[in-house]
Amino acid sequence: MEYVTAVPHPRSEAAGPARAGRISLAVALLSGALGAAVALLATRRQWSEGTATVAGGDFPLTASGSDVTGVPASLAIVGLAALVAVFAVRRLGRVLVAGLLALSGAGTIAASLIGAGDSSALDEKAAQATGDTAATVAELSHTAWPYVAVAGGVLMLLAGLLALRYAPLWPAMSSRYERSGAPRPRKAPTVDPDRPEDLWKALDRGEDPTGA
């Protein structure tokens, strides 16, 4: 009996990395853009609230994420820029940009977690409301929005890690513009000296039909 050994087709071998590249690209784009959008949205929401004691009684105070810290919003913008730049660079540049995207996500996570328990923004508002620089906020409480910003940072971090791992399989924006946009030079038509019409056409083009 003869045994036939199946030989893997080259196309099937190339399909695996190509499919992984497409899936990772889609996941990275979705998670990166969504994470940055979530982080930006969360910083505009209320993160904490409390009261300040004034002459007329307790005065309610609130602080948004941007009041507490501007780091998550700034890093979300940096992450978006890095996500786009991943497709505009190659090789080492792509690795560096992917690392920046991952660091933006990690920084957003850290800043949001720190801001979740921060009271300095409300203490500053309490000092302004009471006119006493030593005043602090009372009945301090926090919302869930800082942790929403953390979730956005996690998505950005995921996009950065995917870019670090699979970016070599992704298409590059610059590859579409490798060819010059200038029109290709046309070859000069061959002039047959025995054909008067060719001589006249060459003269009309400003060429020397004699080749001198």
TrEMBL record:
Sorted alphabetically, the keyword list is: Membrane, Transmembrane, Transmembrane helix
Q: Which InterPro entries match?
A: Trp_biosyn_TM_oprn/chp, Trp_synth-assoc_CHP
**The keyword DNA repair is assigned to this record:** no
Q: Does the keyword Cell division apply?
A: no
The domain of life for this entry's organism is: Bacteria
Ranges for region Disordered: 176-212
Q: Which residues cross the membrane?
A: 20-42, 70-89, 96-116, 144-167
For bias type Basic and acidic residues, the affected ranges are: 192-212
Identification of the protein by name: TIGR02234 family membrane protein
Look up and give the organism this protein is from.
Answer: Streptomyces cupreus
